[in-house]
Amino acid sequence: MNGLRPVGILATGSYTPDKVLSNADLEKMVETSDEWITSRTGIRERRICAEDQASSDLAYEAAVRALNKANISAEDIDMIIVATVTPDHSFPSTSCILQERLGAKKASAIDLSAACTGFIYGVTTATQFIANGMYRYVLVIGVESLSKITNYEDRNTCVLFGDGAGAAVLGPVPEGMGFKAFDLGADGSGAKLLSLPGGGSRYPVTKETVENKMHYLTMTGNEVFKFAVRVMNSATDTVLTKAGLEKEAIDLLVPHQANLRIIDSAVKRFGLSEDKVVINLDRYGNMSSASIPVALDEAIQAGRVKEGDNVILVGFGGGLTWGAALLTWCTREQNGE
Ligand SMILES: CC(C)(COP(=O)(O)OP(=O)(O)OC[C@H]1O[C@@H](n2cnc3c(N)ncnc32)[C@H](O)[C@@H]1OP(=O)(O)O)[C@@H](O)C(=O)NCCC(=O)NCCS
């Protein structure tokens, strides 16, 4: 990071709701089949939050797990960044609700809107604050309750999405470790390809917006698919180049979990063996900003990430947005300032 303090992920935590919605369940709700869903997407089931669960509830569970693993008290957190497109409310921010519930009294708190790329935008933002010395510990959370904005009568979208939360505690790490390169991008010309049209200041909630189902997410799937394949590869290329590494140096790729065919294209392009790619979309579907941190947390829990490994997080989503981050894995904190 060009002479700035090195920053890494000290610990992660994740939480997914108990309720499982399987492909067989969806067959009873819309005109679809397990065969269609698994062959086109790789998804077999997804988690759905309870009626009384909001995003801050999922985020809280993931955050507590990450803080416990990092052995850091909530009171020591300097900033909370919540990446989400399904906040509890338009305002106050979900991060403020979480700050109070965690007792993170000294933390500043912001929500970040970059759709499925939110966690990558979040860790990139957090890193700047720690690297320049303003903060020591930042809690970054990707959380979604997508079931609350999904139309379960629309087979084009309802088979894809699920709910969950993943959290990471970022802090200083020894020289040579931690984040080595980032790539963030946006292309607003594709804004309409993936959106939640109603409920904002363009189309405030009215009887008509609800009747027209504008409170549900909409997507032009095949256009997003082409975009996703392109930027997954280019963002991964960019962070490798910026870090001065070849594709052979990748120890673990943690891609956004939208569609197995999108991930497969990156796997082929970078010549990765199965053990070098984290895939959990078969169990969770696409959890937007939560997909990458949940996948990373599961990989850590399964012992798939070792000290010194080069890990790439890469994602894409609504906006349109994309991003990648390359880090050399290290959970040890930097001593001193
Ligand atoms: C959505 C997606 C799985 C659709 O797969 P696809 O192979 O592109 O399929 P198409 O969109 O071409 O649709 C093919 C047909 O399947 C139908 N279909 C769509 N969803 C279906 C479902 N759940 N079950 C059965 N048929 C379905 C379509 O209606 C279409 O029928 P038609 O040819 O009679 O019009 C795929 O485009 C995709 O994954 N896109 C990216 C989505 C994404 O990543 N979104 C989140 C970004 S963060």
Short précis:
The chain has helices spanning 23-27, 34-41, 55-70, 94-102, 118-131, 155-158, 207-211, 221-243, 260-269, 281-284, 291-301, and strands spanning 7-15, 19-22, 45-48, 79-83, 108-112, 138-145, 163-172, 178-186, 194-195, 218-219, 252-255, 310-317, 321-328. The chain has 337 residues and is α/β, with parallel strands linked by helices.
Q: Summarize the biggest pleated sheet.
A: 5 strands, mixed
Domain count: the total is 2
Q: Roughly what percent helix?
A: 25-40%
CATH class call of the largest domain: Alpha Beta
Mean pLDDT: 96
The name of the CATH topology of the largest domain is Peroxisomal Thiolase, Chain A, domain 1
Following the backbone from N to C, one meets helices and strands in this order, namely EEHHEHEHEHEHEEEHEHEHHHEE
Strand content: 15-25%
- Pairing-aware structural class of the strands and helices? alpha/beta
Shape: globular
Unique bound compounds = coenzyme A
Tell me the radius of gyration. Answer: 19 Å
CATH level-4 homologous superfamily of the largest domain: Thiolase/Chalcone synthase
- Give the count of helical stretches: 11
End-to-end C-alpha gap: 16 Å
Low-confidence parts? none
CATH architecture annotation of the largest domain:
3-Layer(aba) Sandwich
